[in-house]
Amino acid sequence: MNALSVALALVGLLIGLAWLLAGLLLPEGSPSRAEILSRIRTWGVIFLFLLPVLLAPSPWPYVLLGLVSFLAFKEFITLTPARRQDRWAFLWAYIAIPLQYLWAGIRWYGMFIIFIPVYLFLFLPVRMVLAGHPKGFLRATATLHWGLMTTVYSLSHMAFLLSLPDRTGPHGTVTGASMLFLLLFLTEINDVAQFLWGKALGRHAVLPLVSPRKTWEGLLGGIGTTAAAAVLLGPLFSPLTPLRALGAGLLIGICGFLGDVVMSAVKRDVGVKDSGTLLPGHGGILDRLDSLTFTAPLFFHLIFYLYY
Amino acid sequence: MDALCRTLFALAVRIVTVFWLGYSLRGAEHLPRRGPAIVIANHNSHLDALILFSLFPIGLAPSISIAAAADYFFSGSVRRFLAERFAGLVPIARHGGRDPLGPAAAALQRGNVLILFPEGTRGAPDVMGDIKPGLRHLARRFPRVPVCPVYLHGPGRSLPKGCRIPVPIFIDICAGAPFFPTTDREAFPRQIRSLFENLRAQTLAGLADPQDDDDGYA
User: Fold this and answer.
1) Which of A49-58, B70-79, B183-192, B194-203 has the highest mean pLDDT?
2) Domain ranges of chain A
3) Angstrom distance (rounded) from CA A202 to CA A220
4) Which residues of A106-132 are buried (b: 16+ CB within 10 A; e: fewer)?
5) CA-based nearest residue in chain B for residue A283
6) Which terminus in chain B has less CB density within 10 A, N or C?
7) Omega within 30 of 0 (cis) for the link into B36
């Protein structure tokens, strides 16, 4: 039994326990009961989905993570207004998803890191200009590329983290899968902790116009919780020493929040509440992935810079 | 044999509507569970019929009929074979004929669910075209058959008229309460039109940001 399997078993147990406790403690018929139960159930589904991502042999983790990007990009495209003549550019952007995950799977770092920011950045506007409509051109190209950068490029750093070769950490060998687990666990615990601290103590909104429910109390409590979790878990699942793990925890705590409010601003701009309906109790898949669009590339580059 | 073809078709359609596109449906309880019944929807895309078709359980697939333009879907023997055997299309002769609604009426008589587009043809996305009298004639012949209105938001953007590959986007669907259309020539188009206006407003309101930002976690 390695540390990753033990940790996954514990997380599974934790979700099950939360579901049981919520079911027992919340009064029957209270308005929040169904909402909270469905939210915890969806956490269970996300957990089950992540098991093969972390444990299955290649290429399955890449296929599954690519599917996540596909759903997230589709949700983004659904939200944003588009010009009819850009259909082909959109279809080409979709084709970029399997390619980006292929580069991650075959560990072709040079291609992985420039494919979307350089090649697609140049190619997609060309495809759009060939359609021959300059009106709304900048808005259309910028929207499409922003969607690709967040939902495909940023998130695909999870896949490249998975491809990183083993390293010796403070407590023995760590793998790409264990580092991906660390990233996912810290990002999601940060989301939950900021929410719970905010519910318990929240008074002062950080950005009232973007997201009135995100408070300083929640933010600071969440960052503290995440940093503590990082110090405990970082040395077990990554090459990070406790001090560096503290830095990683602070990074994930702060940038997870930033990713969340940036996506909230997008939703506000297009005038929707949730990005979709894919995850009952959470909203759309982007509502759950918003912080990861920031933490995945930043955590990856921290690890990559320090140890590879 | 026919039932098998229709079931296979229903499975294939789901790959497109569930995986490639994906949809969310409100008012599922309004959809008919058995025939005879008529389901009507706004029409902007070839995807419309496929999406409506996949809202029903696979077991029901053999008893779902889709009203389709005879001149388009029933021209040529291969097309005709596929349309009849696999997709369960029933031809509507758009340019007259003795009994243009004959096959559709026969389907209802067999107890099928009939999918019908009152606009008759695909229009521009989010713009309701003229309401054709076909539905009114059917309602007069089958006064006890309920009609369920459905609004589709998205197919016209994914696969507009004249395009071949659907762009993956999520489709929002809103089904309204079943009703019995008026048979009055004047009132009928107004009734259908205002029904769809309402459903459209409901669909868009369901997506909107109600100022209360309860988007879950911080």
Assistant:
1) A49-58
2) 1-41, 56-163, 173-308
3) 10
4) eeeeeebbebbeeebeeebbebbeeee
5) B215
6) N
7) yes
Nearest by CB to A222, which of B168, B208, B218?
B218
Q: Which two tokens stand for residue A44?
A: 């269970």
Q: Which tens digits make up the pLDDT trace of B153-169?
A: 999 899 988 888 999 99
Rounded CA separation A184/A188 (Å) = 6
For B216, nearest residue in chain A (alpha carbons): A282
Cα dist. A109→A101, A160, A238 in Å? 11, 8, 20
Q: Which domains does chain B have, with CATH numbers?
A: 2-207 (3.40.1130.10)
Q: Is the dihedral of CA B66, B72, B75, B77 positive or negative?
A: negative
Q: pLDDT of B77-135, one tens digit each?
A: 888 888 888 888 988 887 767 788 888 899 999 999 999 999 888 887 777 888 888 89
- Two tokens, residue A24: 């027992």
**B169:A78 CB<8 A:** yes
Residue range A92-113: mean pLDDT, rounded: 97
- What does the DSSP 8-state code read for residue A104? H
When pLDDT is cut at 50, 70 and 90, the band that residue A131 belongs to is: confident
pLDDT band at B17 (very low <50, low <70, confident <90, very high): very high
B16 CB burial (10 A radius; 0-12, 13-18, 19+):
middle
Is pLDDT above 70 for B217? Answer: no
pLDDT in tens, A260-277: 999 999 988 888 888 888
Cβ partners under 8 Å of residue A153, min gap 6: A100, A116, A117, A297
The per-residue pLDDT for B215 is 44
Return the pLDDT at A246. Answer: 97
> Distance between CA A188 and CA A222 in Å, rounded?
11
Cβ(B61)–Cβ(B210) below 8 Å = no
Q: Please state, as a whole number, how many other Cβ atoms lie within 10 Å of the Cβ of residue A238.
A: 30
Q: Which of A195, A214, A272 sits opposite B208 (nearest CB)?
A: A272
Q: From A48, A78, A76, A53, select the one nearest A64 (Cα to Cα).
A: A53
pLDDT given at position B87: 85
Question: Do A291 and A260 contact (CB within 8 A), yes or no?
Answer: yes
Instruction: Tell whether A90 is within 8 A of chain B (Cβ).
Output: yes
Look up residue A300 and give its two tokens.
């990856």
- Both tokens assigned to B167: 């762009």
